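Thread: Newbie trying to understand structure tokens

Hi all, I'm a second-year student working on a class project, and my supervisor (Dr. K.) asked me to get a predicted structure for one chain before our next meeting. I've only ever worked with sequences, so writing a 3D structure as a token string is new to me. If someone could post the tokens and maybe explain what I'm looking at, I'd be very grateful. Here's the chain:
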Amino acid sequence: MPAVRTSGSLVGRMRGSKGVEMLRMKPTTQLRLDHNARSLMREFAHLTGEDVIGEFEQVTQALMAGARFDDYVPILAYRFARDRLRDKPAQQVMYIAA
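---
Reply by user tm_fold:
Sure, no problem. This is what the structure looks like when written as tokens:
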């Protein structure tokens, strides 16, 4: 597959989980995504970790599927996932008195 030049480095393309060709992520992008995922986990502690990470991964995959370069994917994924998570209701916990 041909490589794509982005921000001074060569980044190849790969197939995503649904067979869609996606940009291969640079290591610095992955570090930023990891940092943003941890930030969302702290901010939305009232939601389950699965909900937060699932939403963040879904948004990230959608952005990467259409990306020609990945420099802005971390901040966009953070903002879009954050907006979507704000709309989710808090997890309801029932306490049973013994």
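A couple of things are worth pointing out once you decode it. The chain has a mean pLDDT of 78. Residues 13 and 23 are 4 Å apart (CA to CA). Feel free to ask follow-ups in this thread.
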